[in-house]
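Students often ask why inverse folding is considered easier than folding. One informal answer: many sequences map to the same fold, so there is more than one right answer. In these notes we will look at a single instance of the problem. The structure comes first.
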């Protein structure tokens, strides 16, 4: 059971990091000069979030928490709990990112129909790169914790 959970957790991590990288590539490199190009890029990002990011994040969180519950020694290690807390933060960030991506699809349709302006769309999506960077940083920190497995002893007070 432990090996299966570890495999699924690793697979979910690969999907999450890969999904975030593809999101960044589409956001940075796909032409978005015209409303039609913008809408196409946003549809790709929306599908990526729905079919790669959210399932991968869900798999990572679920298998990580299950690993803690079935493997008793994990329950006593501080790095495991730090990793769990970071994972919950990543999950919240990923939900926020998916919400922003879904909203952007709607904005792109409104842009094509002439109901909004590019300046309004840019203002709505201005924090997208920051959110991507924050989630990627948390994901990489989780990977480092899972590989490095530091002891994280409590700080001793001198007195």
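Output (designed amino acids):
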């Amino acid at each position: 059971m432990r090996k299966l959970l570890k495999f699924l957790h690793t697979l979910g991590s690969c999907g999450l990091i890969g999904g975030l990288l593809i999101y960044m590539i589409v956001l940075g490199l796909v032409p978005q000069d015209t409303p039609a190009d913008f809408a196409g890029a946003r549809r790709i990002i929306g599908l990526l979030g729905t079919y790669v990011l959210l399932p991968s994040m869900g798999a990572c969180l679920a298998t990580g928490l299950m690993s803690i519950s079935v493997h008793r020694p994990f329950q006593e290690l501080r790095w495991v709990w730090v990793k769990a807390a970071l994972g919950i933060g990543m999950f919240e960030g990923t939900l926020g990112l998916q919400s922003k991506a879904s909203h952007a699809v709607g904005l792109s349709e409104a842009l094509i129909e002439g109901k909004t302006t590019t300046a309004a769309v840019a203002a709505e999506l201005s924090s997208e790169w920051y959110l991507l960077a924050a989630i990627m940083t948390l994901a990489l920190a989780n990977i480092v914790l899972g590989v490095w497995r530091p002891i994280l002893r409590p700080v001793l007070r001198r007195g």
